[in-house]
Amino acid sequence: MFFQQKEGGKMADSDRDPAFALSADFMNFSPRDAASRWLAAPDLQVEVYRHLATYVPRILCQGPHGGSGSREEQREELACQLMLLAPLEWLLLGEEPAAGLALLQENNLSSPLCGHVFKVGEPTYSCRECAADPTCVLCMQCFLVSVHRHHRYRMTTSGGGGFCDCGDTEAWKTGPYCQKHTPADRSREAEEDPVSLLPPDMVARSYSIFSIILKYAVDLLTWDQEDQLPAGLEPPERGDTYYCMLFNDEVHTYEQVIYTLQKAVNCSQKEAVSFATTVDRDGRKSVRFGDRQFCEQAKSIIVRNTSRQSKPLRVQVMHSSVVAHQCFALKALSWLGQIIQYSDGLKRILCQVGLQKGPEGENSSLVDRLMLNDSKMWKGARNIYHQLLMNSLLMDLKFKKIFAIQFAKNYERLQSDYIRDDHDREFSITDLSVQVFTVPSLARMLMVEENLMMTIIRTFVDQLRHRDPQGRFQFDRYTAQQAFKFGRVQSLIGDLKYVLISPPPEWSDQLRLKFLDGFDAFLDLLRCMQGMDPVVRQVGQHIEMEPEWEAAFTLQMKLTHIISMIQEWCCTDERVLIEAYKKCLSALSQCHAGLSDGEQPISLSLAGHCVDTFRYQVSQEKVSIHLPVCRLLAGLHVLLSRTEVASRFPEQLPLGELSPHLLIELPLRCLVLCAQVHAGMWRRNGFSLINQIYYYHNVKCRVEMFDKDVVMLQVGASMMDPNHFLMIVLSRFELFHIFSSVDIRKRYREANKDLAQQNTLIEEMLHLIIMVVGERYLPGVGQVEPLDEVRREILHQLSIRPMAHSELVKALPENGNKETGLERVIDSVALFKKPGVTGRGLYELRPEWSKHFNLYFHHYSRADQSKAEEAQRKLRRQNAEDTGERSQTPLRASPGHHGNLCASPALPPPLPPPLCPLFGSLVNLLQCDVLLAVEGAVLQWAVEPSGGGWTESMLQRVLHLVGMALLEEQQQLENSSGDDDVSFRYSSKIARPGDAPSTSGSVLALLESLQNAPHLEVHKDMITWILKMVGNIKTARERTSSSGSVNVNQSRGPEETLRDKDKAERKRKAEMARLRREKIMAQMSEMQKHFINENKELFQQSMEDLEASTSTAEHSPPSSEVTCASQVCVGPRRMGGAERRQLVTCILCQEEQEVRGLGRAMVLAAFIQRSTVLSKNRSRGFPDPEHHDPLFMHPDLSVGTHTASCGHIMHAACWQRYFEAVTQKEQRRQQRLRGHTSYDVENGEFLCPLCECLSNTVIPLLPHTPSPDHSVEHPSLEAWLSRTSQQVAVLISAHRKLSPGAAQEAEPVVPEGFRVDFVPQNPFSSSVSEMINTFCMSAYKVGLKVNPNEQDPRVPVLSWSTCAYTMQSIERLLMDEKKPLFGSLPCRQDDCLSSLTRFSSACWTSASLRTVHSHFIRLLAVLVPNSQVEDTPCILNMDMFHLLVYSVLSYSSVHSLDQSGRSSVDSAHLHLLHLITVAHLVQILLTFTTDEVCMDQDGEESEEEALTLQLYLSLREHLGSALPEVSSGWQLWRCVKAGILPFLRTAALFFHYLNSSAPPADLLGTGAGQWEALCSYLSLPSNLLLLYQSQRTLLEPLIHRWCCDPGVGQVLQGGGVLVRFPRESNRLINLPEDYSVLINQASSFTCPRSGGDKSRAPTLCLVCGCMLCSQSYCCQTEVDGEDVGACTAHTFTCGAGVGLFLRVRESQVLFVAGKTKGCFYPPPYLDDYGETDQGLKRGNPLHLCSERYRKIERLWRQHGIAEVIGHAQEANQTLVAIDWQHL
Ligand SMILES: [Zn+2]
Ligand SMILES: [Zn+2]
Ligand SMILES: [Zn+2]
Ligand SMILES: [Zn+2]
Ligand SMILES: [Zn+2]
Ligand SMILES: [Zn+2]
Ligand SMILES: [Zn+2]
């Protein structure tokens, strides 16, 4: 601060309190008086301006602010309302504003338009059946009460802006109104002017007020001076107070801005972040307030710092009064927006004011001024006035029209402004086009009156000025700036799409005229594209630089829908169609001018035919894939046929001018290019070309590219002599010479020159002919309906394999409405199979449709084709076998064409639909001489078995063509009345011997000779099918000529023999396949061996080893023991398993080893983690790790430590070696490539060497507990208690003596044989001890989140704790899944619990005896209060199971000092169990609640009930009214029994594993008698109250002292967390059934940090239901010195580092663990097709799948999240690269 002053900078007015200065005015100001003063004034504007000039600078922007919501801001807000807005309201309404507004609203007729403006992320709904276009949406409130709820709807989340279209009759084909907005009868009147409903004086006042305020706001928002104000607004007093205003741009990053600000204005990082966030949101923010120099200084630093790489950040130093007025201008606009909500009349008046022509004439209204200055305003200003436009002009149907006209008039200018602006489109006025142009009537009106279609297209073309010499677009030399512009200009295509989205229901002459004008402009655009990005084949060397191709394809892709829509428009009017056709044709002629110039004319002759053409080779000259003009003409030509215009008005069409040769030329070149690329002739042209070819066929482009090229060939071929057509095709494929002379092929073959290439070309050419004749599913080409086309696409997709709905949608082209037509036909062709808990629902082809399968379907890629072929052959083979087996007699030939052949796996062509008349002559291609010659030639080659150079695909295609021809002939025969009509005589033509050049026999003869050729096995079925067809046709012709009736039948004889032959054949093939399989298997196992040898160290495991090691669990399976009724697990009567030897195998070295205390240590890989899964109190913060005392677990179990294991056993030494190797490898790896692995070596993590399970420690295996010493007498509870109390007293006194300065006290009596100084012998070898230590440290480190410290007395406690917690969590799972307590756990859990328990019982040996003793002393003091022990919790704050485990385990240390030989550990365990059970009973009764209303039981009170009541009454004696009154024991006993069950079950588990005692049979099931079995197993009476009853005198004083603990009273009176029993199991939160409910919730969620802002990534914690603002700067927090996102931060408080979230906008489940690990998981929401929608891209309604949600819940409760993340990251390395901590 000091330095700043020296430099002359000074905080302005820091000594003046603006609030104080104002408050005097505040008190004296009366809005009412001000209003009446103004009303009386001669010039209202002058008066209002004077008021604003005085007060605005005094109220607003009085200095730097402390963020939104601060006190200054609230004060500002208040003053603004009272002193500036309230007078305006008084003036407007003429009365007290609140009353006036209410009256206005009451008199207003409610508008049928909803107009709800969407917030970011709010759900929107569109009806796929009824919406006029996909931009028509409903808000949730409207949707839920609309008819569309039961239709096929789509749900999306709004990007903000835009409004609900409910009530707009043009937006919906049906159901435009929801229930809420259905207009009443009064709406008829509403069509009259709503202004007339207002009092006339108010109308006059509102006109003047609205004009003044709106003009004021417009003046200020468009004001560009920093120091001056408009006339009349100059402030009376003017100080040297300035703001340094920083503006947003889209060039600089957040980080750059934050960094610069810290430097320039000396702010903290936090402030800088807040500035940057505001700048980004509002578009500008003052970053400094002070005198001018002070601000200029900051400005220059910012400019200097940001100008290096790019243009600098925009900064202005503005006078505070200017800022204040601008600030108020925004408030005034918002105010206007609010006021007009009360009355449609006021709304209309505002509209009139806004659109009134200004003094400058045309386009000078206030709204015009705003629009034209849009790109100069900052984001915040734009948002506010856009909002106002939406609330006013766009809500008033009359003014919407006027606004639309102004918008269209300014269109070109607005677009150019936008293209230069760097803000996103959502902040531009141009974005309103969607609101205007999507209203069909408006769009057509604008087209007619403002020539909108032409304007848009012309504007677009004008923006792309970079052309080549021929005038075509040239994208390859684009600079970054031009590329940016190209990106922006594409939004114009979107506008065009809105305009064209629905074809007009009727045409006016004007509309025709303007549409055709637009069409002309569009043809100009297409002409700029025709022939762009030409390619020339590269020979010799590879191209140097991949040419740019994406821009051209982007353009093509964007225009695809437009081109289709224009055709749809043309289709609805004959005159338009004819004119458009003529225009397109003449455009094409212009493109063709000069096409054949300079080309050498040639004459071709083949098979007795001759044609003239010119020489052109695709492989040598320029060729372009972009031919939009040709393709549009092809589309229009098909429409001529479809609408029958061609046959009805032939005289109006220039069909005679068409030169078919020219028409086919360019598309043919393009198709040949593809063929050559496939043949590998263009390899040196690089990926650019490959990509272009890919997109040419891709579903996004093909409709207006590949498909139309095929159509154009069909157009040409239908107008030409088929022979000529084929010769030209042959010539363009550069194959003419192959078929024109006999030996050329031979010579090629001998020279082996490019034979493979040539073969591919022949295949491609044959395929093209198949398509030209066979593709008839386009309405207009063939006689089909549009849906037939969709059905056929689906059929062919499903012929490849069953597919999910989304896969099918992706494979089908969408129309402009984003519809594919899929839903309308899918059920007719496919069956839906529902998904299971994983996977997704699939559609399968209905079997009856497979006969329509066409192997040469034009949209198959080669890969699709071979997959489909394989699948279909398999299917038909199966069907043949099925039918063959089922029916003894061969099938009667069924009518139809394939039914009789279904036994054959041949895939003959399906029957095509008939052609339309215009294309009728296409079929002649099939029987023309040139094609016959080609067929003959290929068949001739195929006769030679080897070295023929022909390919099977080639032959297959020829056979397909032959089949098509025969089908055609058969079809014609069937449809004709007599032989004479049938001109198609393929069958007789192929019987003729071949013409020159082929000297061989006829095609038929060739086929017959090929039928039995051994090398043609695969095609045999097809050839047989063909010959049979020939036979049929022959018979049919004979019959027709004799009888005149058509009956195509099949003789039965040959078929039978055929089947036998087939069977033999199949057998042989199967045998061959088996041999091949065996060979492959052998190869694979060889490879495997090799691999294993190479990686011997790590992969010494084979599958057998895996089984061996997991089977170690068999050494202690509970069920293998002989179970008898009196099984007991605790106390002197317990049965032990100590005599069993435990043999285990090390998974690393394979050595077998016995588990012994003094032997080599064996360990179990394990994963230990903190957990809050059982927590009943998530609000309890995590304890301070340094000072937390973990000895007493609170019953809310708020945090524990869970241990899991995969059950794999290793030598400790082997594991250590392995872990070192992993560590070293990881270090080397980290040096190479930085980043994380799926496991964190530094934290001791590793993957189990056998199963790759995530682990971070090992548990040592220890021997069984020895059997109980039966020689010792079992003391009574009283005797044991008194002896133990003596021991405790001795220990306490011994400890006191050790501590320095302890006062001398009386020596307690030492019980006999108790030796305080005895040092027990460690029963473990050093290696076992070391491993005990290792696990102790892991439990300590993880449990407390501290660094290892072996000296810490808390070490053993944490080990006991993980044992107790793990058991509790497993018991809960078993209970909730209704599984038996014993015998249902998987081996690995069983192993884990048993080793964990035995380890815990031994871990005291690694700590100091004194430590463990003092733990025991404190634990015992909970039960037997001891005045020498302080700080013991009351029994309500103690989890009894933890107390049991800790005291049992720590008792061993005390017992080890007892050398009398007269006591047994087992007795002590039993007494401890009894005592704690009683304590738990008391605990349950104390927390008993009568909330649960239930009927009192009739009849006798049982003994249990009586005793429970007795105990309860005695508790009430101690505590009085703190306990509710209860009259009967029945309810109490029921409650006690339920409450104590989990304790008894976990205790049984604990003693079972501790003492290795077999469980009773009843507990291996879930049947009746569980309670009794459990009690007996625990050596407890099944009437637990007897424990109390039998020792009453001993226990009563204890109970009294428990109850008298002040803690008890405190908790019962609500002074702490009261936990009731049984604790309810935690579940994940309930999710709504309908996903949109969640989206709606999330959309109203605001970021908790940045005052009311919408959160960008609202994320729901599935554990506690908390909504978070994820993935955003605003909500980052520091955790352990690192900034982390809201999710990660939340996991540390809610999940102890592990978290499960639902990312609501993404519909994705997020798992995170620690700071670096995470993965996404499929959400539990599915659409009706059984698929998830991650990213919410498809928008199908989503519903909760509870099975999947339960699966996620189980994962969480089993503590499996970390493991799932580990596996996901291991499988998908890109997940490792995500910064999970920032989410
Ligand atoms: Zn609505
Ligand atoms: Zn509505
Ligand atoms: Zn609907
Ligand atoms: Zn080993
Ligand atoms: Zn494992
Ligand atoms: Zn949570
Ligand atoms: Zn936030």
The helix content, as a percent range, equals 40-55%
The amount of beta strand, in percent, is 5-15%
Q: Poorly predicted ranges (pLDDT <50, ≥5 residues)?
A: 1-16, 885-904, 1044-1057, 1094-1125
Q: What is the molecular shape?
A: globular
What is the rounded distance between the termini?
38 Å
Q: Using only CA atoms, what is the Rg?
A: 44 Å
Helix tally?
Answer: 65
Lateral strand order in the biggest sheet: 18-17-21-22-23
Structural class: alpha+beta
Mean of pLDDT: 84
List cofactors, ions and other ligands.
Answer: zinc ion
Oligomer: single chain
The largest sheet, given as strand count, sense and whether it forms a barrel, is: 5 strands, antiparallel
> What is the β-strand count?
25
Topology, element by element:
Elements: H1 2-6, H2 18-28, H3 31-40, H4 44-59, H5 71-93, H6 97-107, E1 120-127, H7 140-144, E2 153-159, H8 187-190, H9 200-221, E3 242-247, H10 254-265, H11 269-282, E4 284-290, H12 292-306, E5 315-319, H13 320-339, H14 344-355, H15 366-372, H16 379-391, H17 397-409, H18 411-420, H19 433-437, H20 440-450, H21 452-463, H22 480-489, H23 491-500, H24 509-529, H25 550-571, H26 574-592, E6 601-606, E7 609-614, H27 628-642, H28 645-648, H29 660-678, H30 686-697, H31 706-719, H32 722-732, H33 736-740, H34 742-751, H35 755-774, H36 786-800, H37 805-811, H38 822-829, E8 830-833, E9 842-845, H39 862-886, H40 929-943, H41 952-975, H42 986-989, H43 1003-1011, H44 1017-1042, H45 1053-1094, H46 1103-1110, E10 1143-1145, E11 1152-1154, E12 1162-1171, E13 1200-1211, H47 1212-1232, E14 1246-1247, E15 1254-1255, E16 1257-1260, H48 1277-1298, H49 1326-1344, H50 1355-1376, H51 1387-1402, H52 1409-1423, H53 1440-1455, H54 1465-1486, H55 1503-1519, H56 1529-1555, H57 1570-1577, H58 1585-1590, H59 1592-1604, H60 1606-1612, H61 1635-1643, E17 1658-1661, E18 1667-1669, E19 1677-1679, ...
Antiparallel strand pairs: 1-2, 3-4, 3-5, 6-7, 8-9, 10-11, 12-13, 12-16, 14-15, 17-18, 17-21, 19-20, 21-22, 22-23, 24-25
Helix pairs in contact: 3-5, 4-5, 4-13, 5-9, 9-13, 9-14, 9-15, 10-11, 10-12, 13-16, 17-20, 18-21, 20-21, 21-23, 21-24, 23-25, 24-26, 25-26, 25-27, 26-27, 27-31, 29-31, 29-35, 31-35, 35-41, 36-38, 36-39, 40-41, 40-43, 41-44, 43-44, 48-52, 49-50, 50-51, 50-53, 50-56, 51-56, 52-53, 53-54, 53-56, ...
Bound molecules: zinc ion (7 copies).
